[in-house]
Amino acid sequence: MERTEPEDAGAEGLSARPGAPGNRATTAVDQAERTTTGPGRERHATTAPAPTNRAMTSFSPADEEKRRGVRQMKLTATGLLLFVAVVYVLATWASHEGAGPWAGYVAAAAEAGMVGALADWFAVTALFRHPLGLPIPHTAIIPTKKDQLGVSLGEFVGENFLSSDVVRQRLRAVGIGSRLGAWLAEPEHADRVTAELAAALRGALTVLRDSDVQAVVGEAITRRADAQEIAPGIGKMLEKIVADGGHKRVVDLVCIRAHDWLVFHDEQVMDAIQGGAPGWTPRFVDKKVGERVYKELLRFVTEMRDAPSHPARGALDRFLTDFASDLQSDTDTRARVERLKGEVLGRGEVQDLIASAWTAVRSMIVSAAEDERSELRLRVRASLLSLGARMATDPRLQAKVDRWVEGAAVYVVTTYRTEITSLITDTVAGWDAEHTTRKIEAHIGRDLQFIRINGTVVGSLAGLLIYTVSRIVGA
């Protein structure tokens, strides 16, 4: 029954299967290669067809269900058209047979209903195909104007959905700061975020190659050290340490260790002193001199250890003070420190140490990320809970988070609006025209069939009203 209605005839004129005998309809490939320019005229396109989107070349079970609904509505609308046609024929016959004035009213209503039904059938059909297969201008709008519709859709989305004002108003109404805070304040949500962050961190460290990271870290440290002079900074730090007396503990430790070392190595010290004596001196003299020097050295170290006001300590303080000043102001001292720095950084042992530091740090971070009870994950979880509690109750923090989110979203939509809208345009351009038409019709065709039904009903009522007014005026 469906094949007998005019709309189906139009569908056969456009959507016939390729290869069918005697079929003169335009296939999907032909439509991609040809563009209609007027009634009965075609020109070949100069550009290759865009790749077809797979989503628009197949029908899902839901699409098939919608197509069945469209077919049922087509039958209903066509049945109503046939019904008013039969009513018109019967009312016209009855009027000729002298049935009475009522037959004229019924015939006028049925006639207008047929006109309305046919007009609306033509309008609905013209959206998707050429009615009756005739290349009437401004018909088959969707398949022939698909690309222009895609451009218009992209511009509409860009102007009405991707504007900064719309984005700000929508995000401000959502209240992301308070919602995110309330969500993060829940322990299970904080656990989930912590686990996801740990997994992402492990994945990132796994992807990175140690050799590449070591090279980057080594180069960064070396370049930073070469670019910045370290002598003034060391001088300021040393000056502050001496002024605060922070070096005294170091001096105490050195004196204690020197005293202990002299006590336990007395023979070695005396042997070294005796070994440096001239060969012509008697051995007992060398021994006496060695013992004397050792005792004096031990006494000096002991006094320096036990007496905070020892002159040697004061001399050391003055030396460190002068050295700190030279590091900041003396050109020769600063140059020597820079040369020493270059020599130290250039040594292979130092570079190996810098490279090995990354391996140690990476292993430590991976182990901490994998261990649910590690200090790293516990601190991250606690920080998330604290942040969530603050965001849920602090209006100022909520406003700050909202401004950050709004600013980021506005930057994205204003900077990449063209790319976003071009995604819509390019996607629509890549759809197959025939299949796209059929799919769109499956989604909105059922509602469009109500236009045909309403056209039949409204046309009948309008025809009845016009006929009635005409009879009244004529009378």
UniProtKB/TrEMBL annotation:
InterPro entries noted in UniProt: DUF445
Sorted UniProt keywords: Membrane, Transmembrane, Transmembrane helix
Transmembrane segments: 75-96
Location of region: Disordered: 1-67
Biased composition (Polar residues): 24-38
Protein name: DUF445 domain-containing protein
